[in-house]
Amino acid sequence: MSQAYTPGLKVTPHVRWRSKRVLPIAGEVLVSAGQAVGAQDVVARTLMPGDVTPVNLAKLLSIPAGDVPKAMLKQVGESIAAGELLARSQGLFGLFKSEAKSPATGTVESISAVTGQVMLRGEPLAVQVRAFLTGTVVEVLPNEGVVVEADVALIQGIFGIGGEAYGPIRSVCSKPDQDLTDDRIAADMKGAVIVGGRRITQAAVRKAQQLGAAAIVSGGIDDHDLREILGYDLGVAVTGAEQIGLTVIITEGFGDIAMAERTFKLLEQHAGAQASVNGATQIRAGVMRPEIVVSLSDASQKRSAGMSAQVEGGVLAPGVTVRIIREPYFGQLGQVTALPSEPRVLASESKARVVEVRLSSGQTAVVPRANVELIEG
Length: 377
What we know:
The chain is mainly beta. The protein folds into three domains: 71 residues, CATH 2.40.50; 132 residues, Glucose Oxidase, domain 1; 62 residues, SH3 type barrels, CATH 2.30.30. The chain contains six helices and 30 strands.
């Protein structure tokens, strides 16, 4: 049977999923192997060194750099508060003394008689890593973190912004081709993962921010709206660190694109359930997808979800579901019907290996294999 390999998105009602949860630097792991954890339980923590604030005392006090050590009122290793006196010049015959106050709270890290600079190290920053999944710790990585495993319903999106968030799923559209507009968002959705259908409007995102929603999920978004929401043009390397007050996940792409029917129904099925979401996206080497995860914590949930047919990761073969990611069929889903072995001449007059896809309309599209993305069940 013909087959090929292509990148894929997972949209599945039941899969055994592992999440590696690690600290940015060495720290303390708070759980042990075999321990049950909740999605928001802290599993590891550490202290990141505070920011460094340079202070040019030679300039501030109008003294030679070599005189700075003698002018110091605080020495290396001593703590100081913002606004507290840091140094005082000797003045002329004991008169006309100049003083310099600390611009930040922290510790004096270094004093240079060569540059006249003093370095202040800010307070350590506490960093905590949460489990993200409600499941079991299957591996402890000493001083680094853990690996958590759980049975979950998993939906990976195309694009996202914002980091990890948690909350109950609230579906606000009755059909996947309905836009997620601001009038669909109510005051009782604070802390919720709001799920729409087609395009998220800028007004809807603004309202969700004001209400304190945890996340907002829909099929598409206009690139102009995204730019207005962020206040700048987004780069294409890695997202997830944006500070906009909530996480946004797009399941299909840019523009007026309805959410895939299977994605919409799966999210609708879990309305009211607690979800973990992460908007972090990386589209270059080391692909990372935004995701919505619902832990199936009991047997009844697992039974109701059912086990979807599993496809070997990345295998493009007849019968599998794909999304076309280039015009003129951009965003459409269909089933692979054939993988011709010989390259074909395209409309652009170039040659490429192609895939034949039967769309939901019944039409068969012939597109380059590079223009499809596997929807893994």
